[in-house]
UniProtKB/TrEMBL annotation, chain A:
Keywords: Membrane, Transmembrane, Transmembrane helix. The chain crosses the membrane at residues 12-30, 42-60, 72-94, 100-118, 139-162, 168-187. This is Uncharacterized protein.
Length: 196, 66
C-alpha cells in the first residue's frame, strides 16, 4: 500500500511555530533597536502565533497530512505572510498618501491576500471527507454565530454611546478565523483516538 | 449503529490509515466509524462494503435504531 507522503501535522505545527517565534523575536528586537513600533507589533504577533501553534502541536496527533490539507498549507501560508507584510509595510504609507484613488487601493490591498485565505479554506472544505465537512460546518457555525452575536451586542452598545468602536469592523473576520481555529480543534477531539 | 469494521480490518491486516487510504477518507473518520462516534453516509457505507467484499448489512447493524 502506498504510504501517505510528506510531513506530519504535529511536525508541521512545530516547524511553523518555531519559525514564527524566531521571526517574531527578530522583528521585536529590530523594532526595539530602530524604535519602529510597527515592527515591534509584528514581532509580538509572531511570538503570540508561534506560541499558539506550539501549544496546539502538543495536542495534535502525529499523523501524515492528507493531500487537501497539504494543498491548504501551501495556499494558506504564503497568503497570510503576504497579508502581514502588506499590513505592516504598505498600509502605514496611507498617512503619507492623499490622492483618493491611491488611498482606496492601499486601504483595500490587505483584503487581497485574505481573499486567497478564504479561497484556500473553501477548497479545503470542498476536498474534505464527510466527517471533516461536518466538523468544519460545526466550527464555522460556532465562529460565525458567536462573533456575529458579540458584534451585534457591541454595535448596540456603540449606538447607545456606551463604548466607542474605532475601526472595529476589521477585527470581525480575524475574530471569526480565531474562533473557527479553536472550534475545529475542540470538535475534532470528540472524534479523536484510535491507533497512533 | 454498531459495526464490525475493526474486526474486518484486523482480518485483512490493515491499519486505520491503510483503510482510510483505500476509502479516500481521513484516519480520524475511520476511527470515528469504528468506535461508533460517527455513522457513515450511505455512499461511504457502500464503499466500505465494497472494500471488504461484503454487504452493508453484514458490516453495519442498526441495533436499537431498527
Amino acid at each position: 500500500m502506498r504510504k501517505a507522503e510528506g510531513t506530519s501535522k504535529r511536525r508541521m505545527l512545530r516547524r511553523i511555530g518555531a519559525t514564527a517565534l524566531a521571526l517574531g523575536t527578530v522583528a521585536w528586537i529590530a523594532g526595539e533597536v530602530f524604535t519602529w513600533s510597527s515592527l515591534q507589533r509584528l514581532g509580538v504577533l509572531g511570538l503570540v502565533l508561534g506560541g499558539v501553534w506550539l501549544l496546539f502541536s502538543l495536542y495534535t496527533r502525529d499523523e501524515p497530512l492528507r493531500a487537501p490539507q497539504r494543498r491548504y498549507m501551501r495556499e494558506f501560508f504564503p497568503a497570510i505572510v503576504a497579508y502581514v507584510v502588506i499590513l505592516f509595510s504598505v498600509w502605514p504609507l496611507l498617512q503619507h498618501v492623499h490622492a483618493n484613488g491611491l488611498r482606496v487601493l492601499i486601504a483595500l490591498l490587505p483584503v487581497l491576500p485574505v481573499a486567497f485565505v478564504v479561497r484556500a479554506m473553501v477548497r479545503l472544505v470542498l476536498a474534505s471527507d464527510e466527517l471533516e465537512r461536518r466538523i468544519q460546518l460545526e466550527a464555522i457555525s460556532i465562529a460565525s454565530l458567536s462573533v456575529g452575536l458579540v458584534s451585534l451586542a457591541l454595535g448596540f452598545m456603540a449606538a447607545a454611546g456606551v463604548v466607542l468602536l474605532k475601526n472595529a469592523l476589521v477585527l470581525v473576520l480575524p475574530a471569526m478565523f480565531a474562533v473557527y481555529g479553536v472550534a475545529v480543534w475542540w470538535i475534532r477531539r470528540r472524534y479523536d483516538g484510535g491507533e497512533p | 449503529m454498531n459495526n464490525h469494521l475493526r474486526a474486518l480490518r484486523a482480518e485483512h491486516g490493515w491499519s486505520q490509515a491503510d483503510l482510510a487510504e483505500r476509502l479516500d477518507v481521513s484516519r480520524q473518520t475511520v476511527n470515528a466509524i469504528e468506535t461508533g462516534k460517527y455513522d457513515p453516509s450511505l455512499p461511504l457505507a457502500f464503499r466500505i462494503a465494497r472494500v471488504f467484499g461484503s454487504s452493508i448489512e453484514s458490516i453495519f447493524d442498526p441495533g436499537d435504531q431498527a
